[in-house]
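Researcher: For the annotation table, I need structure tokens for thioredoxin-dependent peroxiredoxin. Please keep the output clean. Sequence:
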Amino acid sequence: MTLNDALTDVNAKARGALPPEIFEVLEADRRRATGTKFAEAGDKIEDFTLPGADGTLVSLSHLVADGPAVLVFYRGQWCPYCNLTLRTYQQELLPELTARNVTLAAISPQKPDGPFADLEFPVLSDVGSTVARGLGLSYPVSAPVREAMQTLGTDLEQFNGTWELVHPAVVVVDQDRALRFVDVHPDFVTRTEPAEILKSL
């Protein structure tokens, strides 16, 4: 089963578990047209320093010190699609990247909230979405989606400090901070397959 097959299964279970009116709002959000210009391969990313889930500061220059880095932008720990994706990358991608001397790190707009117990790569907090915004990934949550999320008990203002989210994305950054691969998913149920990331390297 591919990662996206597993994510489709999660979404099918959500359809059965959520009130229909809530699910339809979230489904409509998946299908929206963004009209946003995302960063592209060949662009440069500014150096940054972000806190890890345990408060430790990590810079991009540190992540690419010994080779390229794979940066995974995700919505937050409250997102089941994100959690499945990160754990899949842990299992299927991290060993391959380690063998190639490539660093893996995940970045979300969520406030530092303690480490993922079972992840062995940095999980960084881009509070205010400064890094994500520079790549065109950040966007404000619409009023209907905000209301639906609040109904489900997900208060982004509490988790992130603002009602702003990021499009899930994977970028590969070389040691000169140039983007060598960019894959953005405005449809938050879909993600970059591990094989695609390895192929990009």
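Researcher: And a one-line annotation?
Model: The chain has one domain: 3-34+43-200.
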